[in-house]
Amino acid sequence: MRLGSFFAVFGCVACLALAGCKVTPPGKAETAVVQWTKHTVTVGGKHDKNPVQSTPDKIEAGKQTFGFYCVVCHGRDGQNTGVPFAGNMSPPIPSLASKEIQRYSDGQLKWIIENGLSPSGMPAAKGILSDEDIWTIVVFLRHLPPAGSLGEPRTYSGDEYAK
Ligand code: HEC
Question: Mean pLDDT across the stretch 31-38?
Answer without folding.
Answer: 87
